[in-house]
Design a protein that fits this description.
3 domains; 762 residues; Rossmann fold; binds beta-D-glucopyranose; 22 helices
């Protein structure tokens, strides 16, 4: 017995030693990732060795779930959705498609997801080779295509927090709830630069600044993928829309952008580069054209830059129907088959077709005809299989619902609330009208006051977000949150107007006369992509009229903006005593807005974009000096309604002692910039310390200022902290005329708040 015990202890000891040795080998071995990749590539190659051309082009095909659902005699999908076994067999067995995406117009329950994905996987097993289908979905502000999940603020609200930890956590929770639904791939984040406020997807971006976008994008990718995307709690990220999608000249979705290579490298590529370096596994391609070339056919962008320079190893998927569009929309291909040739040869690995399988047939023929090489096919399939292995699809990717106890939990809702609460940005607060006292009699009015659809925006339950109220009726609108915050007896409500017309303005005005303060909730209804194109950035006429009529009552008015892009409010802005920007704050947004209005939350959000004052003056913060020159004595030059980075607090922050570690910096040196920030008010608060630079003279006209660092800090009333940033010459570089990153010697100014200092690089 004793002997056995000793032996047992010895084995136990030995196994502990072995485990420790293994862990330490993993930690110490710098080549571990490469070694693991080498092992994955071995497995990829052994799968590929068994595949024929038909199976390979199948892997490169992605179809929408609509194509495998049962339809009625009029080809309408039957609800509730049911898989059509014959269609499914054709898609995954006969064609062996590599990937399926999204929903047929409406979110599913977690149980429906599990049963659909299981059926797809079982059917896939009937194929000659078992290669699991990679399911992908637009889970962009939470798992928004599964019912009952945690919905976060949309991306520009996330950016307004200036808090990367909150954004990483939003990514982690989204991944958790997406995987809980059985899905391992999200088409997020959007890393497009939101530099044109008219563009209907501005709210899907992290705003106009490349430094902020890069930091936020990295955080979201890290949240999605964790350190191991194969874990049952993580998903593959998809960086989209590579690249230049967000800067159409017209502001309309999927219209031409003209972006010189110099600008592409300085303003559009860095967020992609950083996210690729963080290990992002997939990329989705820009639907539109850039410099006259549809990006889906641009070999330079898709191969030379993405692969050779940025060293991206994962898969590049087309956007929706965009290979076919090379023929019908862009007119650079003679027919659909020619379109496939152009796109695959340019570097696309997978086509989001999305409805028919002709892509696979054409690609098969093109290889047989020698118009697409077998090498190119092998390269694409290798990348696709690599991603499938990285996600653990060949091992175990089916986990029971019971593995996800935190799905839609209070913990997750609290994280969404925290993000919304830190996003909300106080833009105006005349005579400290806010926060309101909880005994104030308020009239709540306006089209976004009692509307979950507006709070969540697009990609919520449906693509356009138009059925949100039907499914999320149990969540609190702004009106409901205010009612529970201060008691229904203190609140009256009238909608006043919808986004287009008068509903009951006269009732609203009558109620305003009885109230002490009017809270008017205005903005936009949900939309995304093409349906969100507009011809006028002004806030709709009905809403402007509502505010003007309310102003006639003489009552103080608080404006709450719930909108995906900064709709022009210059006619009514002077009529507001206070303005709160809510962005598209998600399910917890109503509560967070009420908490800001009544002082439970001290606002700390800062605008991640410039709020323009006039529709033909859409100049953003990092413009050139020539754009600041006034036209005449009464013009201000650069004159937005609110500046990038702006946001008030219920307390005051004082900045002093901006100190540099040196005033002359060699190229290899690091400069330490520090500043003291004190909370001089009587409330605790959070502040975003923002560091900007200005290159006084450069061979490419410098911007008036550029964001170089930020830090969100928390200060108790009366507290003081020193915040420091490290800056190297590389951090101040720009892309020069030769398209290379350059820092030129000379004088630079640094700004934090209203403090300014300068130094030399030699
Ligand atoms: C959008 C993408 C989205 C894809 C799949 C496209 O229309 O541009 O952002 O990921 O559809 O839904």
């Amino acid at each position: 017995m004793k002997h056995n015990y000793v032996l047992h202890s010895f084995y136990k000891y030995l196994s502990v030693i072995l485990i420790l040795a293994l862990v330490s080998a993993c930690q110490n071995n710098a080549g571990t990732n490469d070694e693991m990749d080498a092992q994955i590539y071995e497995r990829v190659d052994s799968v590929m060795a068994t595949m024929n051309l038909k199976e390979k082009v199948g892997q490169m095909t992605q179809i929408a779930i609509d194509s495998i659902l049962r339809t009625d005699n009029n080809h309408k999908i039957i609800e509730p959705f049911q898989l059509d076994t014959a269609k499914l067999r054709r898609v995954v067995v006969e064609y062996g498609v590599g990937s399926i995406l999204n929903v047929a117009g409406l979110a599913l329950t977690i149980d429906q997801w599990h049963s659909f994905l299981e059926a797809i996987d079982q059917m896939t097993k009937e194929g000659k080779n078992y290669i699991p289908v990679l399911y992908g979905i637009d889970a962009i502000h939470g798992a928004n295509y599964t019912h009952g999940t945690t919905l976060f603020p949309q991306q520009n609200g996330m950016a307004a927090t200036w808090n990367t930890s909150l954004v990483k956590e939003a990514g982690r929770i989204t991944a958790y709830e997406t995987r809980a639904s059985g899905i391992p791939w999200t088409f997020s984040p959007v890393l497009d630069m939101g530099r044109n406020p008219v563009w209907p997807r501005l709210w899907e971006t992290f705003g106009e600044d490349v430094f902020l976008t890069t930091a936020m994008g990295k955080a979201l990718v890290e949240g999605y993928q964790g350190t191991d995307a194969a874990s049952k709690f993580h998903v593959a990220a998809c960086l989209k829309h590579y690249v230049g999608y967000s800067a159409p000249l017209s502001g309309k979705d999927r219209t031409p952008a003209w972006i010189p290579e110099r600008m592409l490298r300085e303003y559009f590529l860095p967020p992609f580069q950083a996210a690729i370096e963080s290990g992002a596994l997939t990329v989705m391609v820009n639907s539109a054209e850039m410099n006259g070339i549809p990006v889906h056919a641009d070999h330079f962008v898709l191969t030379t830059i993405l692969r050779d320079e940025l060293k991206f190893k994962g898969l590049a998927v087309s956007d929706w129907a965009d290979i076919g569009n090379l023929d019908t929309v862009h007119r650079i291909a003679v027919d659909k088959k020619d379109a496939v040739r152009l796109a695959i040869n340019a570097g696309i690995d997978m086509s989001m077709v999305p409805f028919n399988l002709e892509f696979a047939d054409y690609l098969f023929e093109l290889v047989k005809e020698g118009k697409v090489s077998q090498t190119r096919i092998d390269e694409a399939v290798r990348r696709i299989l690599w991603v499938k292995f990285k996600l653990g699809l060949f091992d175990n990717f089916k986990f029971p619902k019971s593995d996800y106890p935190d799905f839609a939990s209070q913990k997750h809702r609290d994280a969404s609330y925290a993000t919304a609460a830190e996003a909300i940005t106080l833009l105006k607060n005349t005579n400290n009208i806010l926060p309101l006292n909880k005994t104030t009699k308020v009239l709540v009015v306006g089209p976004t006051a009692n509307n979950m659809r507006a709070l969540n925006g697009g990609w919520t339950i449906t693509w356009q977000g138009h059925r949100t109220d039907e499914f999320l009726g149990s969540e609190s609108t702004i009106l409901e949150a205010i009612q529970s915050e201060i008691g229904s007896a203190n609140v009256t409500y009238a909608q006043g107007v919808d986004f287009e017309k008068d509903i009951d303005i006269s009732k609203a005005v009558a109620l305003a006369r009885q109230a002490t303060v009017v809270i008017v909730c205005i903005g936009e209804n949900s939309y995304t992509e093409k349906p969100g194109d507009i011809k006028d950035l002004n806030l709709s006429a009905s809403q402007i009229d509502l505010v003007k009529q309310l102003k006639g009552t003489g009552k103080p008015i608080i404006g709450v903006l719930v909108e995906g892009r900064p709709r022009i409010i210059n006619q009514i802005e002077p009529m507001f005593d206070g303005i709160v920007m809510g962005y598209l704050p998600g399910n917890m947004g109503g509560v967070a807005i009420a908490d800001v209005l009544f002082g439970d939350v001290n606002p700390s959000g800062k605008l991640p974009f410039t709020y323009p004052r006039n529709p033909n003056d859409l100049v953003i913060y990092d413009h050139k000096f020539s754009e600041s020159i006034p036209a005449n004595w009464y013009d201000k030059g650069f004159d937005p309604q609110y500046e990038f980075g702006f946001g008030l607090s219920y307390t005051q922050f004082k900045y002093e002692n901006l100190v540099l570690s040196t005033d002359s910096l060699a190229f290899a040196d690091t400069l330490v910039v520090s500043v003291d920030v004190s909370n001089t008010g009587s409330r605790d608060g959070k502040e975003v310390v923002q560091l900007y630079s200005n290159d006084l003279v450069a061979s490419i006209t410098p911007s008036v200022r550029r964001l170089r660092g930020f830090d969100k800090i928390e200060l108790k009333a009366g507290e003081k902290k020193t915040v420091s940033f490290k800056i190297t010459a590389r951090d101040l570089a720009f892309v020069a005329a030769n398209n290379k990153w350059t820092t030129e010697a000379g004088q630079f100014e640094l700004y934090i708040d209203k403090l300014k200092t300068s130094f030399f690089i030699y």
